[in-house]
């Protein structure tokens, strides 16, 4: 990227309070910020009359809010159309993973391939030094290495979604909100008189218009009904299609008159959903997993075996573990993660992220040990 003055920065503007305050803080620190609003894919099969049909990350309302914020701050706002790459790298990936019996994390994929990954490349071609966003994470930079840390606000920390970042990417990223708490960001937005100061935020998957996860899967995946059985082979009902269920799930396992039941296993060979009637049944627990497609933040593999902490899903409490390297055919590096205590509902396709206290060491995609 252009290294002439190290001040030109693209700010990913979502029309929310976080990116709004991030842009203002950068300007006040002497940077030359330019707002960029990204257009992602939206489901054209929904009625255009439905307000919910728009991707929440790039709706017309969000664009209008981003434009008003940039006018208030006194910076330019441009747009980039990332809809095609978003559809391919995020939506298609999301659907294909479910077809294969895994539960993906689209936000991790988006940050890696689109929202940050592709934007960094575009920014460099346009002559910008940095890309900034409103993520609640911190980077500590030195001449030799860039390290990624949890955000100061533990309730808003988003480091779990950024384990794929490389040293090259980290060298061009700024996260102005890493040292702030959410309530402080809200107060700053009011102080700066930003129009997004009181705007609510959405926690749903942005490209699912109605917020109904299963309705979206039913629309794009050919599902096949099959038996629901207890572990002793007794049939107790019919499922709507295995991709609609994940390990440990209770909601949606609807068996008239009996229950509750919890998903214990999805057998794709026989199209059978196995359930248990105890949410703490030992079959829902495991003390190990396989981590694939692992990325080490500092760019090199640490000395193994490594004792650290791991998070197996967003907002999951960090747990002590030991990481060992496996010998895998075809030069595929995979790692065995052993937990100090068994963990409930370890789910293939989700991310496992490794921490040394506040520092993100790396992460990978979960596979179930023995699969």
Give your account of this protein's structure:
About 25% of the residues lie in helices and about 30% in strands. It is built from eight helices and 17 strands. The longest helix is centred in the N-terminal third of the chain and has 17 residues, at about 85-100. The radius of gyration is 22 Å and the shape is globular.
Radius of gyration: 22 Å
Total strands: 17
Q: What shape does the CA trace take?
A: globular
Extract low-pLDDT stretches: 47-51
Query: Count the helices. How many?
Result: 8
> Strand-residue fraction?
25-35%
Layout of strands and helices, then pairs:
Layout: E1 8-12, H1 17-28, E2 32-39, H2 60-73, E3 77-81, H3 83-99, H4 106-115, H5 117-125, E4 130-132, E5 137-141, E6 146-150, H6 167-170, E7 173-174, H7 182-191, H8 213-220, E8 226-230, E9 235-239, E10 262-267, E11 272-276, E12 285-296, E13 306-311, E14 319-326, E15 334-344, E16 351-356, E17 359-367
Parallel strand pairs: 1-2, 1-4, 2-3, 4-7, 8-11
Antiparallel strand pairs: 5-6, 6-17, 8-9, 10-11, 12-15, 12-17, 13-14, 13-16, 14-15, 16-17
């Amino acid at each position: 990227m252009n290294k002439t003055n190290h001040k030109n920065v693209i700010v990913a503007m979502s029309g929310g309070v976080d990116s709004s305050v991030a842009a203002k803080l950068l300007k006040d620190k002497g940077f030359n910020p330019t707002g960029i609003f990204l257009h992602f894919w939206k489901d054209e099969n929904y009625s255009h009359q439905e307000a919910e049909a728009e991707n929440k990350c790039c709706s017309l309302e969000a664009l209008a809010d981003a434009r008003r914020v940039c006018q208030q701050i006194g910076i330019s706002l441009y747009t980039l159309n990332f809809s095609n790459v978003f559809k391919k790298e995020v939506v298609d990936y999301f659907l294909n993973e479910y077809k294969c019996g895994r539960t993906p994390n689209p936000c991790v994929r988006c940050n890696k391939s689109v929202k940050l990954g592709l934007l960094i490349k575009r920014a460099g071609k346009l002559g910008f030094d940095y890309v900034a966003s409103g993520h609640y994470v911190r980077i500590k930079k030195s001449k030799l290495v860039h390290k990624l840390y949890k955000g100061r606000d533990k309730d808003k920390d988003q480091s779990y979604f950024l384990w794929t970042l490389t040293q090259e990417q980290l060298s061009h990223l700024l996260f102005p909100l890493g040292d702030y708490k959410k309530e402080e960001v809200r107060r700053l937005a009011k102080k700066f008189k930003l129009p997004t100061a009181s705007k609510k935020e959405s926690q749903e998957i942005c490209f699912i218009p109605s917020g109904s996860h299963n309705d979206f899967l039913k629309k794009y995946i050919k599902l096949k009904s099959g038996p629901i059985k207890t572990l002793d082979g007794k049939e107790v009902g019919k499922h709507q299609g295995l991709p609609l269920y994940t390990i440990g799930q209770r909601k949606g396992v609807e068996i008239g008159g009996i229950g509750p039941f919890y998903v214990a296993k999805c057998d794709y060979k026989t199209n059978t959903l196995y359930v248990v009637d105890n949410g703490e049944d030992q079959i829902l627990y495991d003390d190990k997993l396989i981590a694939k497609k692992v990325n080490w933040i500092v760019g090199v593999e640490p000395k193994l075996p490594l004792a650290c902490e791991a998070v197996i899903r967003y907002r999951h409490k960090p747990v002590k573990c030991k990481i060992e390297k496996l010998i895998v055919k075809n030069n595929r590096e995979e790692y065995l993660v052993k937990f100090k205590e068994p963990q409930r509902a370890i789910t293939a396709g989700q991310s496992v992220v490794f921490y040394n206290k506040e520092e993100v060491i790396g992460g990978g995609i979960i596979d179930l040990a023995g699969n």
